[in-house]
Specification:
Layout (H helix, E strand, L loop, with lengths): L1 H21 L27 E10 H13 L3 E10 L2 E10 L6 E9 L2 E10 L2 E6 L1 H8 L5 H6 L3 E4 L1 H4 L7 H9 L14 E7 L2 E7 L7 E5 L6 E6 L3 E6 L15 E3 H9 L1
Parallel strand pairs: 7-13
Antiparallel strand pairs: 1-8, 2-3, 2-12, 3-4, 4-5, 5-6, 6-7, 8-9, 9-10, 10-11, 11-12
Length: about 270
């Protein structure tokens, strides 16, 4: 679970820094350095799983290989999470398409890798829209004067497709890959031959498998016959949960009156 927290925070921090480069022409001071260690408004942390019917699922080795393939083939998903470690904490909520160029939203709040504040990213129809708090613009992008946040107010900033293409780490797919790309396989389990244990997490039944972190962390797979990755949870560091597998609602771009373009922002800041 420690690996999950570190890789997600590092990925989000890297995304924030590439975002800072994309906005470098808008003014503000130099982006603040970040370490490499972690709205839709953030959702409440998930409750700890409560055991229900003592039924066994397939063995971890059998189930996780199929779930890995299913994860790679997902069209869309909804994700929520609450992570805390080494004085850092973040709440994450996202939904939408996992396809390249698909529409999605991702919101992050808290402090991670030297970045503090709230950030919402909406990718829609080739344009990247961001809305962030003053503390985010200050710690991630060096805007110590608060000028960018004050000028934008409650609007999204639209980043054109040619500039958005260089912003890595802030898509819904990037976030999920940050903690599944390397560790989502049988070697992540404490006992790959052990069957899944049926438990209830936030009102739905899933099969749980103990990970090899030796801290009580559990990996969840759906118990509905679809064998989808449903999340991971640690008693010490929090959780990330996935729902709406290939059934997440379509995400739309913000309305025109909620958006400011890069040109409008630059003109407002020098005017």
């Amino acid at each position: 679970m420690k690996r999950l927290t570190r890789t997600t925070s590092a990925g989000l921090a890297a995304g924030a820094l590439t975002l800072a480069l994309a906005l470098s022409g808008c003014g503000g001071d130099d982006p603040a350095p970040a370490s490499t260690s972690a709205g839709t408004e953030s959702q409440a942390p998930a409750e700890s799983p409560t055991p229900t019917t003592p039924e066994e699922g397939p063995t971890g080795a059998e189930a996780i290989e199929e779930a890995r393939t299913n994860l790679d083939n997902l069209e869309s998903v909804t994700v929520s999470g609450s992570l805390e470690m080494d004085g850092e904490n973040m709440e994450v909520a996202g939904t939408g398409s996992l396809a390249d160029g698909g529409n999605y939203s991702l919101s992050v709040s808290g402090n991670y890798s030297g970045i503090d504040g709230d950030l919402t990213v909406v990718g829609a129809d080739g344009t990247l829209y961001i809305k962030a708090s003053e503390s985010f613009f200050e710690t991630a992008m060096g805007d110590t004067s608060g000028q960018i946040a004050a000028t934008l107010g409650d609007k999204y900033l639209a980043i054109p497709a040619d500039q958005a293409a260089g912003v890595d780490g802030l898509t819904l797919k990037d976030f999920i890959n940050s903690f599944t790309e390397q560790d989502f396989n049988a070697s992540a389990l404490k006992d790959p031959d052990a069957p899944g244990v049926l438990v209830e997490v936030e009102g739905r039944e899933v099969y749980s498998y103990e990970t090899n972190d030796n801290d009580g962390s559990l990996l969840y797979l759906t118990a509905d016959g679809e064998n989808q990755f449903a999340g991971i949870e640690s008693p010490e560091a929090g959780n990330v949960l996935l729902t709406d597998h290939s059934q997440a609602e379509e995400v739309a771009a913000p309305s025109e009156d909620e958006v400011m373009t890069m040109e409008q922002l630059q003109q407002a800041m020098v005017g």
